[in-house]
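Quick question about two entries, pasted in order.
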Amino acid sequence: MSDDQDNVNTDLFKNIERLRQLRIEHRDLDDIITRLTMDFRVDEVQMKRLKKRKLMLKDQIARLESQLIPDLNA
């Protein structure tokens, strides 16, 4: 196996692992936000920050998924 192929496999593994971590964090944030919405004493600023972080994670996940899908025109 060539060095280039090793690098591609290593990068692919890193991207897949990063995607897995982002999905876990996104799911955890979703759970936290759901629980906080049940609390009438919730800090609205904190809630906005959590929702913004969740949206940022969703964007990162979409970007990584797009990179992992092979280009069909190639």
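Here is the second entry:
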Amino acid sequence: MTRLSIVLLAAVMFSAMYLVRVQYESRHLFTEIERARAEARTLETQRRQLEVEKRAQATSLRVEKLAQEKLAMRPVTPAITEYVTAHAQAAAASGAREERAR
């Protein structure tokens, strides 16, 4: 009877130690999940901020301003517009052929 009691006591002690270990791992994994969720929320917030900045950088007014300042472009007006007709293209192509033939 005492042997059986000792074996049962050892089994209870083993199961209690195992239960404590499993609870510790469970808590540890739960804190890791919460940490990952917090990081995901932070990354989502940063992504939204970057999207807002991207939209602000791509506004037509900003693009036009940069084109005028850095690329020295100017708006199109009818005074500087050149119209090309099919007849002019053919004449230019034949002129280019004559230049190559010489």
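Reply: The chain has three helices and no strands. Residues 2-57 form the longest helix (56 residues). Hope that helps.
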